[in-house]
Amino acid sequence: MAQIGTEVVDRPLPEQPADDTEAHEEDDTIGELPTDLSGINADITSSTANSPFNKFRGSICATEGYEKNLHVLAKNQYTDRAMGIFTSGGDAQGMNPAVRAIVRMGIYLGCKVYFIHEGYQGLVDGGNSIRQATWASVSGILDDGGTIIGSARCKDFREKPGRLRAAKNLIDHGINNIVCIGGDGSLTGANLFRKEWDSLLKELVETKEVTQENADKYKNLNIVGLVGSIDNDFCGTDMTIGADSALHRVMEAIDCITTTASSHQRCFVMEVMGRHCGYLALVTALGSDADWVFIPESPPEPGWEDQLCNKLKSTREMGQRLNIIILAEGAIDTEGRPITSDGVKELISTRLKYDTRVTILGHVQRGGCPSAFDRLLGTRMGTEAVLALMEATATSQPVVIAISGNQTVRVPLMQCVEKTLAVAQAMHAKKFKEAQELRGRSFKGNLETYIRLSKLRPKVVSNKQCSFNLAVINVGSPACGVNAAVRSIIRYGLCEGHKMYAIFDGFEGLINNQVKSLDWVAVNGWSSVGGSLLGCQKTLASKVGLAKLAEKIREHNFHALLIIGGYEAYLSILQMYEARNQYPAFQIPLICIPATIANNVPGTEFCIGADTALNEIVKICDKIKQSAQGSKRRIFVIETMGGYCGYLATMAALASGADQAYIYEEPFTIKDLIDDVDHLRKKMEGHLKRGLLLRNERANEHYSTDFITKLLQEEGKGVFSARSNVLGHMQQGGLPSPFDRAFATKLGCKAVTYAVSLIEKAATQDGKVICNTAESAVVLGLIKRQNEFTSVESLKLKTDTEHRMPLEQWWLKLRPLLRILAKHESVYVSDLMEAGVEEVDQSQ
Question: Which residues bind substrate (predicted)?
Fold first, then answer.
């Protein structure tokens, strides 16, 4: 379906305190939702009429299939509903952001929202365990790990008498809509509860514990599930809430251990969680350049002990000072026997006499602040869960809100549970290949990629007769994850039997012959390094000279050029593509792998480096909020990078709970700024006496960060003070996030595969390559649910060349959500899709 940009009607709420009090529950100052939604459509269109991006988005009414696929949520749309929310099973970072989004979106829509404390136990106990939530109940919890409403195992709920008590407690509170956040066991219990609901009500009526009137009023129980699990072991979604944060904990530990291991030439065996699923171990190994990984779904073949020792010995002989082995706690061999971390340590210490240590991370992986990804994932899923409940009917089946690529989808709950159970059954039967298939294409792809990239000496695994020359170059500004992409390109190309070249210092380096052939060992350990080890320059191809570049490409006999970088990389490929007739040397595969913290490259929804930068910003915002909380009545204005693109400012604001984010794509006036001052003044009347505003560095030529700060200082005299903070280049620093490492690795491998496929089709008998089609000059990126190649020729029409960014940007549709959760009035438009579990698991 067509992608929708910003759909927003923003007006500050009159006379409404920024943090909830008891009076808020009765506040009707905004009025009722209009019965004719066409008025909203008109407002949405007019609100962005002055934006240069509006004509490319189109109005809501004009969007093909809009009525069928999009969902509009507005203030007080469902005033007669009540919903309950509980967390069950193991806790996971990101649960609190989900709880916050559910509570605030529910209240915004006019619903009563109830906390059910301690999971199913609270459902059975009732009483004080079921309490109505307020807006202020979820203030300041975005950066808290765990779950503020508790989670507990409950034996009572497994028996019918317990479920009878649970049903009565819900009816007593007028609740027949439930969001369950948990794993497959918790969601299975919720589905059983729903199936029995009718019989439970009949029994309660017969025993006169519930009136027939109430039984008729609440005759349907609607269930929506969100998967909270650090193991990422649930089929039907690419990521579960908490998995990314757990990866952050594991990767941070690996990065720290690497330095001490190298100092003493030690071998470390690191055990991570994953009793029945090897996701954490596998992605950790993929992003940390680990020497070996043990996971339940892929047991090592008999004789693995010899293979492991031989590999470790070879790495030391080649000069490597350390070895890292990742082991999932549920690791087994082909006979189902456990492989333990102590057992692996004993093997290495005895046979190789290496100083070997074991580190078991344990519950550290569950703790700490949620990552930016998990905050956004929980927020998006929580919002969509409320929407799913509001749209549920008597015949609706329970659904899980899942993420497929970058697309939120509704998947039938029991389909997901059944497939998840099928994985366990396959592993129990020692059908490990089947278990890998059931985990989904993404899991299997990660495993195959790790195996290829971790080989000590590459072996040609294809039947190709020809060897090609592939070159990789970094053009643009530094972005974390670039080195991981280079590593995967070099090693994957070598694995396919090709010659791999690295060009240092951008196009200027190519002109100066800074070209080097890299072997397997040369890129060892690159995944965990920030910045760009190749060196990068922002100089465009045209600036260096297309004729000179063509001559150098011909001189080095490159058959393909893979350019990692930001907008400069995209624009350089476009320039070379358009000059192909003049310079035949450019008639080779030209592939752009987007890497920039600005996230402004056309043809992708995410760029390598943007996630790391976003996490850096969110961490700083958390610290600044802490400072403001100590100071009391203080507003901070934070300036982010990104050029004209407001991605970082918007997503960081959403992930940190900011009050507003000022960006170029959404024009604002002095009146808007004054309205925000009024909003913040009212907020100070509540219990949370701090505020946070983010501003993109080029949001407005005149309303600078300094101007906004001084405006707040002047207009807030006697009520609050204001400070500003320009984050600058610290956003480009740090170590790559787990997402950026894995994303870069996958894109690098896919780019090599695509380039080689084009070369093979275009290669002549004399060894020349002639690729002159639009499909041979492309950008590789994630678009909704797939990693796709898009020609630069087609992207030219979808690009704002003056401001260096795409005309359509997916994240703009989240802007209204930012406003709603900060207690402004807005209209949220969702483009959530419905899909089967097989469809989600087969997405890339």
Answer: 229-231, 266, 273-275, 329, 357, 363-366
d(CA 573, CA 119): 54
pTM over 0.70: yes
Residue type, 704: S
What does the pLDDT look like over 130-172, one tens digit per residue?
999 999 999 999 999 999 999 988 999 999 999 999 999 999 9
CB 312 within 8 A of CB 291: yes
Spell out the CATH class of 243-365. Answer: alpha beta
Q: For residue 485, which of 607, 320, 616 has the smallest C-alpha distance?
A: 607
Residues of the chain with CATH 3.40.50.460: 243-365, 611-734
Count of CB atoms within 10 A of residue 88's CB?
Answer: 29
Catalytic residue check, 231: yes
Helix (H, G, I), strand (E, B) or coil at 594: strand
Q: Is 153 exposed, middle or buried (0-12, 13-18, 19+ CB in 10 A)?
A: middle
Show Cβ contacts of residue 656 under 8 Å, excluding neighbours closer than 6 positions.
Answer: 142, 143, 375, 617, 618, 621, 622, 625, 692, 694
Q: Is 730 annotated as a binding residue?
A: yes
Q: Is 732 annotated as a binding residue?
A: yes
- Catalytic hit among 10, 20, 143, 231: 231
Host H or E run for residue 345: helix 341-352
What are residue 358's phi and psi, to 5 degrees?
A: -115, 135
Average pLDDT, the chain: 88
Locate CATH 3.40.50.450 in the chain.
Answer: 63-239+370-423, 469-608+736-806
Tens digits of per-residue pLDDT, 206-225?
999 999 999 999 999 999 99
329 is in an annotated binding site: yes
CATH T-level fold of 469-608+736-806:
Rossmann fold (3.40.50)
Kindly report the CATH class assigned to 63-239+370-423. Answer: alpha beta
**Residue 229 annotated as lining a ligand binding site:** yes
Q: Which fold has domain 611-734?
A: Rossmann fold (3.40.50)
